[in-house]
Write a structure and sequence with these properties.
384 residues; 19 helices; 69% helix
């Protein structure tokens, strides 16, 4: 039952916010409805339509709050009308996601509010995942709620772009933590995948939604092989591919194959296609690097940027040799980023310039905030 309540919570909150307005008040009302359900359903049995039951109870509680003197003053500020008729029993998850990713919010606030309101994570859980003080996350969420108070923001396929960016950020932070002792923060990758699945149910015809979900599945499938027994990072070419999650690879590959055949192509789909090519290779030497390079050429044309260019350079080196990659590396505008130094070190090592490679590995190690990455780069520098 707890899993059902967690799945229904954002749908109910989205419906009540859409109908009544007042994010804080609606969130309180939904929490009371969830508490009532956890107490009554085991005793009285689950209603035929649990979502409608929750929406009704939360809506009633929201109206009671409005009728109090304090809530009346809040209503005047937010221009919210009470008793506007029955709340429709529809899935408003996308509405809530779009509201949490409102363009008036900073990216950090969008992420925090999405994880809190849609993901159901507590403030303490979000703070632990991002290695920041709980008070910092609480302030971000509080400021975000205040900023979107009374905001009307209709859900549409076009608005999904901001939501996809936020889910992508959440997943990436979980898959390769930007700082701290752990390489992975599984709670973030799992939540990003769950929310992407939820978003796809809401927008089943959106190719980029399907592409992002496929990308997450295909990437996370490699997670079991990305670290050794002692937690050290294992690069893609050295991973034991027997440890990859074949079920996730099959699901992600099937999803991107089906999506590319019917939907206009977009950046998330191209990235998923690249991940699928890696997933299909039983051994590192079996990887179809010319196909990956062609896909990166397409991706760079769609979304020009230094990180895409850097990833493409790795493919260039695998197809045309390390010298070609090193030549193009000087054109990447990512000065001071540890990933540039790490790629340079790898290409120098492949080119046989071991002294320069060791120096580049050491420089990359100094510049990263991730302890697993630092340990790997230091070890690599000593080994060459």
């Amino acid at each position: 039952m707890n899993e059902l309540l967690r799945e229904l919570a954002p749908q109910v909150l989205g419906a009540v916010v859409r109908h009544h307005g007042g994010f804080d008040e609606c969130e309180d009302a939904v929490q009371e409805a969830l508490l009532a359900a956890s107490q009554q359903w085991p005793r009285d049995g689950m209603p035929d339509n649990p979502r409608a039951w929750l929406i009704t109870v939360a809506s009633r509680r929201r109206t009671e709050m409005w009728r109090s003197d304090t809530a009346r003053r809040r209503r005047e500020e937010a221009d919210v009308a009470p008793d506007a008729g029955p709340v429709p029993d529809t899935d408003d998850t996308l509405t809530l996601l779009v509201l949490c990713c409102h363009p008036s919010l900073t990216r950090a606030s969008q992420v925090a509010l999405t994880l809190r309101a849609v993901g159901g994570l507590t403030t303490a859980e979000i703070a632990r995942a991002y290695l920041v003080p709980e008070a910092t996350i609480a302030q971000r969420i509080s400021r975000a709620k205040a900023r979107i108070r009374g905001v009307g923001f209709e859900a549409s396929p076009d608005a999904a772009g901001a939501v996809l960016q936020v889910l992508y950020l959440i997943f990436n932070e979980g898959y390769t933590a930007s700082s701290g002792e752990a390489l992975h923060r599984v709670e973030l990758t799992a939540e990003a995948i769950r929310l992407a699945r939820l978003l796809r149910r809401t927008l089943p015809g959106n190719g980029e939604v399907a592409g992002l979900l496929a990308l997450m599945l295909l990437t996370d499938a490699r997670r079991p092989a990305r670290t050794g027994p002692d937690g050290t990072l294992v690069p893609l070419e050295e991973q034991d591919r027997v440890r990859w999650d074949t079920g996730m690879i099959a699901e992600g590959t099937g999803l991107i194959t089906e999506t590319l055949a019917r939907a206009p192509i977009g950046p998330y789909q191209v990235q998923a296609a690249i991940a699928a090519v890696h997933g299909e290779a039983g051994r590192a030497q079996d990887t179809d690097w010319p196909q990956i390079l062609a896909l990166y050429d397409l991706l760079l044309a769609m979304i020009p940027g230094p990180m895409v260019a850097l990833n493409r350079i790795v493919a260039v080196a695998m197809v045309h040799g390390p010298a070609a990659g090193l030549t193009e590396l000087d054109t990447v505008d990512l000065a001071g980023h540890h990933r540039v130094d790490a790629v340079r070190a790898h290409l120098l090592e492949r080119a046989g310039d071991l002294e320069a490679a060791a120096a580049a590995y050491r420089l990359a190690a100094r510049r990263t905030s991730s302890l697993p990455e630092r340990h790997y780069l230091e070890k690599r520098g000593r080994r060459v």
